[in-house]
Amino acid sequence: MNLTSTRSALAGIVATTTAVAALSLGAVQATAAPASESRVSAAQEADTAQVPGWVLRGKYWQYGNCVLAGNEGVQRGHWDQFQCASGTLQWVLWTNR
Fold first, then answer.
1. For 2, which DSSP code?
2. What pTM was estimated for this model as a whole?
3. Most buried of 2, 6, 62, 92 (most Cβ within 10 A)?
4. Across the strands, what pairs with 60?
């Protein structure tokens, strides 16, 4: 095998690996939250825009911690509704007041 064909073979392997990784990450993100969970728009997930009336309360590394904080706020009467949106690296807690 010469140098050109070796490079072509490696480029094909890298492209295939990248495609498989992208598909795998998409599958993980799609199953990260239950389908019944209400979601916010892509602009909110990127933390670039806010829906009027909704307040950003915090960011959490784990989905369960975001839900726990949201439920605690509901139980304490701080807000009536909350959403845990998938942000860039963390889960973002949004509340209705």
1. -
2. 0.48
3. 92
4. 91
